């Protein structure tokens, strides 16, 4: 149905890694709206311009209020409803890592979750976080309060002293946050990730009172959903929650250092969700969130960048929005959405190439970076092979040769040339890719990605070059044994 009862198809924007430039978001919003998405879930983390007591929770390159209003304007023009996300329990690393907020931690060694028994965490920190984010979202109908992966519960002295188990402490804090949202922002319904509730008993969940306060977003990014969500979970949720959301993934689910999304695995995950939603009658599905993680947590390196994940995002949107279409038809529409030339014909099973590198020939926002990452994958493979060949397989540039400065100069000449050639190519790649990335990201994100991906290869090659040079420079050698 249309109107407020229409199911929501939500694209998750995880801004805690490589936050994109505004004009890329504008182009992206147009594409996803054209593909049928009708909402976005915006996870600001440290990219929100916090103020007052929270001002240091913002990254130094956080978006300005003006930029956020601009982004919200683009979303509105495209008919995308905006759902803000604020973590209110765990995954508060971006705040708790700071000296000035460390006293809010549950465990002083781990800056992940707040202590729910410290009265200041709610009254000083959580309320303020919510108020500041909501001040830029005055018309939202939903607020996602996070609450996933709260790994340390009932762990500090204050919490254990209350003689409540972790489940009760969790429920108490979430209920308090949800009640605050509902009373402070009338008409706003809190959403939360479901993983902490999943292993509760039906009675625990019913008695927690959360059924009247929040709507759970049930997330599974694996292809086999039933393995992680046995049917009794749906029975339990169906009895307690009038509405349930689900969450699949289009990036950031199959490896912390992945470069581009695996289309086969992501499409299988999304299609599996379709089957679950079609066959599970005991819950009312409110909407589906296609998550796109940028880092696995605040401290992790970058995984797949958003521009190179546009093909995965559009493919999965088209698949879930047209469940009755044959896959071939969705693929045809996908090629159109990506502005692919007729020469690009994907293998629809994605088995032979789960990354579909030929999509670099299309012209979607992000296609030039997609091509560049394809070149990177080839360079990376060559560098790793050369390194392994020279230091492990061949007999003249192993660590033994280096340690004893003992090798055949003639044997090393060719290796030296190959290493120098690859170093030159890596330098050229770094320069051209920096230029392309600047179209999508600020300098900090560009530098971070290049440092994580390109520099380690260049360092490996530079160390080989250095070793080879020293070994070649020698012209007399000692008698054996060498040690
Ligand atoms: Zn505590």
From TrEMBL:
- Which EC number(s) does the record attach to this protein? 3.2.1.52
Name the InterPro entries on file. GH (IPR017853), Glyco_hydro_20_cat (IPR015883), HEXDC-like (IPR038901)
Indicate the segments forming the Glycoside hydrolase family 20 catalytic domain, all copies: 58-201
Keyword field: Hydrolase
Task: Spell out the family assignment given in the record's similarity comment.
Answer: Belongs to the glycosyl hydrolase 20 family.
PANTHER family of this UniProt entry? BCDNA.GH04120
Name of this chain's protein: beta-N-acetylhexosaminidase
Origin species, per record, is Zootermopsis nevadensis
């Amino acid at each position: 149905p249309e109107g407020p009862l229409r199911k929501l198809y939500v694209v998750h924007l995880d801004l805690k890694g490589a936050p994109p430039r505004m004009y890329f978001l504008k182009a992206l919003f147009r594409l996803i709206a054209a593909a049928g998405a009708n909402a976005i879930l915006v996870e600001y983390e440290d990219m929100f311009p916090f103020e007052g007591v929270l001002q240091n929770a913002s990254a130094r390159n956080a978006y300005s209020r003006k930029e956020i209003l601009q982004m919200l304007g683009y979303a509105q023009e495209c008919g995308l409803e905006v759902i803000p996300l604020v973590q209110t329990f765990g995954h508060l690393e971006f705040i708790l890592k700071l000296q000035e907020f460390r006293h809010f931690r549950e465990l002083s060694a781990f800056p992940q979750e707040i202590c729910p028994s410290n009265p200041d965490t709610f009254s000083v920190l959580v309320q303020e976080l919510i108020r500041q984010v909501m001040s830029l979202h005055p018309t939202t109908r939903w607020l996602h309060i996070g609450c996933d992966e709260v790994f340390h519960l009932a762990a500090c002295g204050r919490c254990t002293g209350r003689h409540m188990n972790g489940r009760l402490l969790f429920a108490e804090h979430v209920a308090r946050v949800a009640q605050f949202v509902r009373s402070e922002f009338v008409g706003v319904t809190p959403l939360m990730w479901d993983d902490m509730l999943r292993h509760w008993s039906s009675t625990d969940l019913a008695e927690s009172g959360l059924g009247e306060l929040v709507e759970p977003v049930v997330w599974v990014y694996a292809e086999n959903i039933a393995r992680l969500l046995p049917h009794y979970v749906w029975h339990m949720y169906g009895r307690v929650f009038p509405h349930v959301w689900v969450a699949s993934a289009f990036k950031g689910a199959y490896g912390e250092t992945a470069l581009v999304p695996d289309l086969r695995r992501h499409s299988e995950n999304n299609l599996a969700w379709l089957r679950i939603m079609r066959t599970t009658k005991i819950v009312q599905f409110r909407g589906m969130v296609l998550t796109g993680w940028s880092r696995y947590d605040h401290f992790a390196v970058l995984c797949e960048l958003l521009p190179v994940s546009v093909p995965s995002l559009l493919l999965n949107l088209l698949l879930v929005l047209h469940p009755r279409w044959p896959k071939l038809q969705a693929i045809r529409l996908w090629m159109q959405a990506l502005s692919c030339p007729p020469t690009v014909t994907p293998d629809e099973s994605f088995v032979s190439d789960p990354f579909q590198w030929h999509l670099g020939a299309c012209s979607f926002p992000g296609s030039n970076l997609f091509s560049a990452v394809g070149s990177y994958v080839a360079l990376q493979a060559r560098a790793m092979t050369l390194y392994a060949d020279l230091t492990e397989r061949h007999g003249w540039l192993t660590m033994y040769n280096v340690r004893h400065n003992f090798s055949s100069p003639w044997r090393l000449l060719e290796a030296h040339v190959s290493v120098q050639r690859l170093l030159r190519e890596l330098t050229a790649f770094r320069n051209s890719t920096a230029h392309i990335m600047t179209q999508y990201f600020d300098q900090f994100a560009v530098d971070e990605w290049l440092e994580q991906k390109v520099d380690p290869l260049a360092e490996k090659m530079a160390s080989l070059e250095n070793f080879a040079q020293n070994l070649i420079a020698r012209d007399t050698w000692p008698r054996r044994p060498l040690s």
